[in-house]
Design a protein that fits this description.
Keywords: Methyltransferase, S-adenosyl-L-methionine, Transferase
Radius of gyration: 25 Å
CATH superfamily of the largest domain: Vaccinia Virus protein VP39
GO molecular function: O-methyltransferase activity; protein dimerization activity
Bound molecules: S-adenosylmethionine
Helix content: 40-55%
Mean pLDDT: 91
Number of domains: 2
Structural class: alpha/beta
Protein name: SAM-dependent methlyltransferase
InterPro entries: COMT-like, COMT_C, COMT_dimerisation, SAM-dependent_MTases_sf, WH-like_DNA-bd_sf, WH_DNA-bd_sf
CATH topology of the largest domain: Rossmann fold
């Protein structure tokens, strides 16, 4: 196979500015040797080196973490520390191999090793067990990992990805009509939605809202959290018919059930339930391409009264300042799903503006890897 040339295609003129000249200097192997030896640059060189190594080994860390989750090591340690020998048998591997895994977990600070050589949970490991849906998320990464096997082919659009089959609803309601498929994705989403709901409600207040419509609301975790926080709020969850059974079961078990309702339908083909003074789109837009999002935002605008509020909450790109969660993980995840795309708050804001919304505000996220929130308002029409 011929290697692609490093020189730019004909007609592309590169400007070699000061920064590029500096980076060319840093790229020289001799410079790295010099920087490592020179007292003023030594610590920066060492830090850069460590960070580079961390980037290089990232996939090994993820896979070691996957093994810890898949073998339920964290759960097995909930009652106290165990030796590698004690864990080896139930996990059907030699004590030596188990020790290798446990040492990796210790190095990643998920586990800790005591003086007697027993392994127990470290704070991060215990937190992993407590974060709803995190272990399921890690397990379902097996499919994502296979999709990433040839990242260049993935970027070129040459991979028939597994994730596109895992989340079939994004291609339209017809693809998610069976309850088994619906349960699989909604369970995973519902568990992780608890922390998304918490961060969303921490960022924006729904005080003063009488009726919330949560479009693509899944099992209604956000709607329920909103209703529990605001005792006067009624909420309607609007999602595909395939989600109805599980969503209704969940809503019925809530102490706020009298104020929660599920309406089945597709935002592509059906009218939205009316009467809401606020509409939320939680982790909905990034699943869809621009034309679908533009049509949805237009529909949301029409369904709201003057002064009505839109709340968008989902992981976002850093925009002009790319950041790790949005521009690496979620960006490639959307790529593997083959439909949607992760967008920056500025881009979503511009799409809201195109739909007619004003007062667009994005909120500094506590945890960009969980969600970022943006709100917009349907302007009051001027009298007369
Ligand atoms: C990524 S999940 C998010 C669910 C929930 N809001 C959350 O954050 O956990 C996207 C949701 O949008 C729903 N959805 C997808 N296409 C839809 C459509 N055309 N009409 C209504 N809901 C749809 C899916 O069924 C799913 O529940």
């Amino acid at each position: 196979m011929a290697l692609a040339s490093d020189t730019p295609p004909a007609g592309v003129r590169q400007r070699i500015g000061l920064h590029t000249r500096l980076m060319r200097l840093v790229a020289r192997p001799g410079f790295q040797r010099w920087a490592a030896a020179f007292p003023f640059t030594r610590s920066t060189a060492a830090k850069d080196g460590a960070e580079l190594f961390d980037l290089v080994q990232g996939f090994v860390k993820s896979q070691a973490l996957f093994a810890l989750v898949d073998l339920r090591i964290l759960h097995r340690l909930m009652d106290g520390p165990l030796t590698s020998g004690e864990l080896a048998g139930p996990c059907r591997m030699s004590a030596d191999r188990m020790d290798r895994l446990l040492r990796a977990g210790t190095a990643m600070r998920v586990l800790r090793r005591d003086r007697k050589g027993r392994y127990g949970l470290a704070r991060k490991g215990a937190a992993m067990v407590g974060v709803p849906g995190l272990e399921d998320m890690i397990r379902h990464h097996a499919a994502f990992y296979r999709d990433l096997n040839d990242p260049v082919a993935l970027l070129r659009g040459e991979v028939d990805t597994e994730l596109s089959a895992f989340w079939p609803y994004v291609f339209g309601a017809d693809n998610a009509t069976d309850a088994e498929t619906s349960s699989r994705y909604s369970d995973l989403m519902a568990r992780s939605q608890e922390i998304v709901a918490a961060d969303t409600l921490a960022a924006v207040s729904l005080a003063g809202i009488d009726r919330l419509l949560d479009i693509g609301g899944g099992y209604g975790v956000f709607a329920e959290a909103a209703a529990l926080k605001h005792p006067d709020l009624n909420a309607v969850v609007f999602d595909l018919p395939a989600v109805r059974r599980n969503a209704e079961a969940r809503l019925q078990s809530s102490t706020a059930r009298d104020r929660l309702r599920f309406v089945a339908g597709s935002f592509r083909d059906d009218a939205l339930p009316d009467g809401a003074d606020a509409i939320s789109l939680i982790r909905v837009l990034y699943d869809h391409q621009d034309s679908t999002v533009a049509a949805l935002l237009g529909k949301v605008f029409d369904a709201l009264p003057d002064g009505g509020r839109l709340i968008v909450s989902e992981p976002m790109s850093g925009g002009d300042r790319p950041e790790i969660a949005g521009d690496v993980y979620f960006s490639f995840y959307c790529l593997a799903m083959q439909t949607g795309t992760v967008r920056s708050a500025a881009r979503i804001g511009a799409m809201c503006e195109n739909a007619g919304f004003t007062d667009i505000r994005s909120y500094k996220s506590r945890r960009p890897y969980v969600t970022t929130v943006l709100t917009a308002v349907k302007p009051q029409t001027k009298p007369g």
